[in-house]
Predict the 3D structure of the following.
Amino acid sequence: MARVNGVNVSPQEQRNQAWLELTGRDSRRSGKLDMLAIGGGITGAGILREAARRNLAVALIEQRDFAWGTSSRSSKMVHGGLRYLLSGQLKLTWESVRERERLLREAPGLVDPMGFLYAFYKKHWPGRWSFTALLNAYDILASRFNHRYVSVQDCIWLAPHITRKGLTGGIQYGDAVTDDARLVFRTIREAQQDHALALNYVAADRLIIEGGRVCGVGVRDVVSGETADVHATVVVNATGAWADRVRAQVGGGRSIRPLRGSHLVFPFWRLPVAQAIMLIHPSDRRPVFILPWEGATIVGNTDLDHKEDLDIEASITPQELDYLLEAVRYQFPALRIDRGDVLSTYSGVRPVIGTGVLNPSKEKRAHSIWVERGLISVSGGKLTTFRLIARDVLERAARLIPSLPLEKRNNPLFYRTPGPNPHLQQLNQTLQKRLIGRYGTEAEEVVVCAKEGELVRVPGTDVIWAELRWAARTEAVVHLEDLLLRRTQLGILLPEGGMGFLNLIRSICREELGWNDERWLQELYSYRSLWRRCHGIPGETDKRQNTK
Ligand SMILES: Cc1cc2nc3c(=O)[nH]c(=O)nc-3n(C[C@H](O)[C@H](O)[C@H](O)COP(=O)(O)OP(=O)(O)OC[C@H]3O[C@@H](n4cnc5c(N)ncnc54)[C@H](O)[C@@H]3O)c2cc1C
């Protein structure tokens, strides 16, 4: 159980308390909020963080789990995006590389440098000189020289199984990677430490409009079914790909073009790369990334119009699977990779502002803000630029909340890191850095909560068992999928979504969440069917079910 003011509080009690505070039925918070953000992805989290830092009474609600939307399904890169630079999106690239540098400084262990290799082949475009020119521009924008030419031998050393036919050398450049869902959690946790309120599994069912202006939201606790009206001076719609739905209630038009991007995850030993590889897909010349991540290797992504219902979780199609496999085989033919090597898959829906161009990949990736009848809506942009997006939103909000202080200075986003302490010091440097990056000042408590044998890694991953216990105890876990797909991403890193470790996971859930056998079986059943639908290999699901 978590300790709040010296008292043990169960996850259910924490949730009940937060609901009372949200709905103004708790003496600690009565009256109107200054701001209510809808959407618990990185955009909503960033807005919550920036608003709480400026002492606003602010709350965030998320209809499913925090980071359930696109923000746990990205390519995990914190980057400027070379292709955005190539397509002339200079401002976006400039802002992104600056934000990358800031996050690297402020959140080591959560956002870490990653080298990227691009290999040159005879008669292939882009060649050495054009790619170098692109990287010169990229590095100028970041004010940091961060690339170098590498020989054929170095290429082979960095990517041992890379195709050697026609290989003339390569270029290595620097970007960064993160755990996207944990970036959301760290941002939310820091906001909560500044007295913000954040509730998952609470949906915004309708906007409350009085005198022609939005002044609150009709909310529903998805778990209990309870409903309430929550009033706020400003309501922010940060619902990503869902933004048009909320805007429709204030007469907003259709602006979002939902684009699906899918990824494959391989066991690292099957697709070993010393650092990330960028390659140009042979069939459509789009960039594809192969990235070592948390003990596995991720390959992504695709970029296709997503025509399906947004309430149904996105999943990879057989065509996308083949497309990504083709890219891997093209770059690493000797490995003879096929679908049987894939550990898991995941797909996300990118909220892109549609301009009507035919090719989805040609759509711009910058964010947009709309103010309609007092509702501030924001969508688009990137994980990397979430702090800037939040600051833009607060600037708009300042016109509606006169007391809102605007910061001219670029204050740090994450300012809480623990000092030296004996609990963390018993861990090796890498683990210390990981926990501090992901949990800030709470890193020490993650170590303290560990039972015997829980300060070791879950085999084949970088996650330690204590992270699961800590999450179950304090991080608003409602379902098993929250624990395995977002608090940790073990569900995509382990075979069959982690089925081999169920006994240990079950005992953590029993102890921390109070789940009895019946509840465990329900959770397990829905997690397994979700995993097969959205994280398995298309086609395999039916095969497996038929053999039962
Ligand atoms: C395949 C792919 C790869 C990407 N890779 C990268 C990358 O490497 N680097 C990078 O910087 N960016 C990347 N991006 C972009 C980045 O992931 C997104 O821009 C970002 O996650 C969007 O965050 P968001 O908070 O706006 O949306 P989401 O994360 O989707 O959050 C919106 C939330 O709103 C909730 N919601 C909707 N309606 C309601 C309601 N009525 N009530 C309550 N809650 C509601 C949803 O459940 C959802 O959780 C990628 C995107 C995709 C699709």
Remarks:
- The chain has a mean pLDDT of 93.
